[in-house]
Design goal:
Layout lengths: L2 H19 L9 H12 L32 H7 L15 H14 L3
């Protein structure tokens, strides 16, 4: 198995556990930086998480366009209870209140008018 495949497999297996354990890189200081670190680690495999990137999964919406579907604050409940819907191969995971606040802050800052 190649290095890239090992990394992807590691992220697939460990991402939900890391989110539950509160993984955030040490250099993430602000609320939005913590949110960005969380979505980079847990969501970027499928979703476009930046201002101009493209989702790699055809059914994964870009985070910058989520407010066109529903209010961003509606994600709070889904993150707290465990997102189990979305694109077909999206892993189910539950975020802590601090993680939810950071993720919402990051995604809110991305929204396009």
């Amino acid at each position: 198995m190649g290095n890239g495949r090992r990394r992807r497999r590691f992220r697939w297996v460990c991402a939900p556990a890391a989110l539950l354990l509160g993984f955030v890189p040490a250099q993430a200081n602000s609320l939005t930086e913590r949110g960005q670190a969380l979505v980079e680690f847990n969501c970027a495999r499928c979703h476009a998480i930046g201002k101009t990137d493209q989702s790699t999964h055809p059914d994964a919406p870009a985070f910058r366009t989520l407010s066109k579907r529903y209010p961003i604050t509606d994600l709070e409940e889904a993150l707290a209870e465990g997102i189990s819907t979305g694109h077909p191969d999206m892993p189910e995971w539950v975020a802590s209140p601090d993680q939810i606040e950071a993720i919402i802050a990051y995604i809110s800052g991305l929204q396009q008018p």
